[in-house]
Amino acid sequence: MQGLEEAVFRNIAATKDLQRITKTSYGPNGRNKMVINHLEKLFVTSDAATIMKELEVVHPAGKLLVMASQQQEQEMGDNTNFVIVFAGELLQQAEYLLRMGLVPADVIQGYDIAGKKALEFLNAKLDPVTGEALPSSQRSWVIPTGVAQLSVHKITQITAAELTKAVKPAIASKQYGYEDLLTNVVVEASLQVMPTNNPSGFNVDSVRVVKILGGSVLDTKVVKGMVFGREAEGVVTKATKAQVAIYSCALDIQTTETKGTVLIKSAEEMVNFSKGEESNLEKVIRDIADSGVKVVVAGSGVGELALHFANRCGIMVVKILSKFDLRRLSRVIGATVMTRLGAPTKEEVGYCDVVETTEIGSDRCTVFRQEGDMSKTATIVIRGGTSNMLDDLERAVDDGVNVVKAVVRDGRLVAGAGAIEVELAKRLSAFGEKTPGLNQYAIKKFAESLEVVPRTLAENAGMDSTEVLSKLYAAHQQGKESAGVDIESEDNGILDAKDEQIFDSLGVKYWALKLATNAALTVLSVDQIIMSKPAGGPKPKEQKGNWDEDD
Question: CA 20 to 30 Å from 144, out of 34, 228, 350, 503?
Answer without folding.
Answer: 503
